[in-house]
């Protein structure tokens, strides 16, 4: 027979187990965040012969009323209680919201801990890849979305910023229709397909034309970096606007450790312009990590049809290697696959199955190789 445990001992043991339950948005344990207001354990009325059965009530205070991740958190709490080995525990979760004063204190502590753009710390573990192109229409945003989804599916903690303020598209590509949660001025990124996302397209009024000039563009990026709680992702991707305008310069200033990935298509009209987006590295402290050639070929009845010509990625790679004085490799040649557009427009990156795993397709295989090669460089 299992030795009876006093209620106080059980409450302490449950609290210890709950310290391993992580809030999905803030990346901290629910105990560290002060979300566990109280734990009450009392013997049940029908405890049985050994009396080793308890009703356990956990009082949970979420950061905001109606938190979209409430069910996820309560399921994790139930799992932690159910795993207790020394007694039979019957869990009851009572969910409420933090008081304004308690939330103010929590947000102030989090902001004081971070203080500034978290990706500029010299000891940051985050690899930052800025996805750039010389012109629109080459599939830069599609590459960003599928690469981010691939990183997440491979087990990397992944975040993405839609830095194309005028032509934002990541919310649609990830099927996001909700707004970020606002914790007293600190935003929680929206998570979709395992990727933490932020985009101007998530906010009210974003369906109207955006007429911003340089200083406001720069401020938008600073807010995305400093006013959003990112935690410590392994990978951060930025979907840049085409060309070499204000946002590319702002990224270089705000994230000098960012690595540029240039996207092109095979035809000369695209590759010639793509070189210019890579040459921005001559003027700002960013390293060009490599080139991705998108829409390289179309597979038809076992034959590769080069619809847009050939050699664009190799031309960009060679010219940037010569101009920058270091190797800028051609990292990947991605096929032209209609499913990338069709599935992407439905709100799911084409590299993923409906269940969120990596698909067994050519495009998923190519993106997996690209992701692993980037992390190995």
From TrEMBL:
Keywords: ATP-binding, Hydrolase, Iron, Iron-sulfur, Metal-binding, Nucleotide-binding. GO terms for molecular function: 4 iron, 4 sulfur cluster binding; ATP binding; ATP hydrolysis activity; ATP-dependent FeS chaperone activity; metal ion binding. The keyword Amino-acid biosynthesis does not apply. This is Iron-sulfur cluster carrier protein. It comes from Bifidobacterium vespertilionis. ATP binds at residues 134-141. Pfam families: FeS_assembly_P, ParA. It comes from the Bacteria. GO terms for biological process: iron-sulfur cluster assembly. Homodimer. CDD domains: Mrp_NBP35. Binds and transfers iron-sulfur (Fe-S) clusters to target apoproteins. Can hydrolyze ATP. Residues 11-86 form the MIP18 family-like domain. The keyword Ligase does not apply. Belongs to the Mrp/NBP35 ATP-binding proteins family.
